[in-house]
Amino acid sequence: MDTLEIPIFPLGSVLYPAGLLSLRIFEPRYVEMTRACIRDNSVFGVTLIRAGYEVGAPAVPSEIGCTARILQWQEPEPGRYTLLAQGESVFRILRRRTLPSGLIVAEVGLEEPPDPLPVADRHEPLAELLADMIEQIGEVHFPKPRRFEDAAWVGNRLCELLPVEPERKQKLLETADPLAVLDEVGRLLKELRDQGGAAD
Question: End-to-end distance of the chain based on CA atoms, in angstroms?
Fold first, then answer.
């Protein structure tokens, strides 16, 4: 397992590999983090908050998150940034510490990405659903290249779109098998459809 030390940005949402993330940065600790990442073309870590809040005192991060690299940035005024970042690798926090600025820095181990797997026949309807959703929402909101034949890519994009609580999305991020992720996505979609039918 490769390890590295990175700043951690706890959020109320989950980032997946290849996923796009828009951020507005204004807290001094994250402004400094942003400047360093832009200068060094380095990554930071996005983790779901286990306890606490995005703003203010340092939140408690989940142990597993996803590295993010800044693709585009603007500084509309001094000390404020708007960013577009992209998820790269799933990681596990091994050790962490909080700097006097309130920024969390962690030694993380990068998880091995799953071997490329084709979308199974039973998951073809999910790949078709994703293609329809991308067309409806707009391709600009999704990463390129499109990989509808890749089970991990399809699973990650559907996980981003699922209207479920972040804790369930976190469990999907922590699931290493892309086919198991798609199985669970299918179950969640059926559950949501059933709930919608019960409400009608």
Answer: 49
Section 83-96 average pLDDT: 97
3 state DSSP class of 110: strand
Task: Give the residue among 23, 8, 36 at the shortest CA–CA distance from 103.
Answer: 8
pLDDT (mean) for 143-149: 91
CATH H-level, domain 121-199: superfamily: BPP1347 like domain (1.10.4060.10)
Mean pLDDT of the chain: 93
Query: Distance between CA 200 and CA 191 in Å, rounded?
Result: 14
53 in Cβ contact with 43 (< 8 Å): no
Residue 47 contacts residue 61 (beta carbons within 8 Å) = yes
Spans of all domains in the chain: 3-110, 121-199
In this predicted structure, what is the pLDDT of residue 141? Answer: 87
Q: What integer pLDDT is reported at residue 86 of this predicted model? A: 97
Beta carbons of 49 and 8 less than 8 angstroms apart = no
pLDDT of 18 reads 96
6 within 8 A of 93, measured Cβ to Cβ: no
